[in-house]
Amino acid sequence: MAKSVEIKCPECGWKPDGQPHWQCSCGYIWDTFQTAGRCPACSKQWERTACIPSAGGCTAFPLHLDWYDGLDEWLREELERIRQGAPA
Predict the structure, then answer these.
(1) What's the rounded Cα separation, in Å, for the pair 8 and 45?
(2) Domain residues of the chain, as ranges?
(3) Are the C-beta atoms of residues 47 and 64 closer than 8 Å to each other?
(4) Which tens digit of pLDDT belongs to each residue from 77-87?
(5) Residue 33 carries which DSSP code?
(6) 10/2 Cα distance (integer angstroms)
(7) Distance (Å, whole) CA 30 – CA 22
(8) What are the pLDDT digits (tens) for 4-63?
(9) Is 46 helix (H, G, I), strand (E, B) or coil?
């Protein structure tokens, strides 16, 4: 079984604390990881997510999907289960 997927900055390892640190260009402020990078106010899908220096992170602005550590391994296992016809 794959290790669990963990959300952390791929550059510095900072782990989001569940607080609304991210602001959309429409002005809405939210926790981007609750919506996989989509603004709940205007539905803009953010491709990149900033690390938050004021919350203990760095100044990186990596791809949103890169924050999900272990996602590749989980996806490979799920695809293999599908190929073998096993339940998820």
Answers:
(1) 19
(2) 8-84
(3) yes
(4) 888 888 888 66
(5) G
(6) 19
(7) 6
(8) 889 999 999 999 999 999 999 999 999 999 999 999 999 999 999 999 999 999 999 999
(9) coil
Determine the Cα–Cα distance for residues 50 and 74; give it in Å rounded to an integer: 24
Q: Which residues pair with 60 in a beta bridge?
A: none
Q: Are 63 and 47 in contact (CB under 8 A)?
A: yes
Q: How far apart are CA 7 and CA 26, in angstroms?
A: 25
How far apart, in Å, are the Cα atoms of 71 and each of 3, 21, 65, 75, 81? 9, 23, 8, 6, 15
Which residues share a beta bridge with 7? 68
Look-up of token digits 């293999």: 80
**Nearest one of 13, 38, 35 to 25, comparing CA atoms:** 38
Contacts of 19 (CB under 8 A, 6+ apart): 31, 55
Cα 2 from chain centre:
17
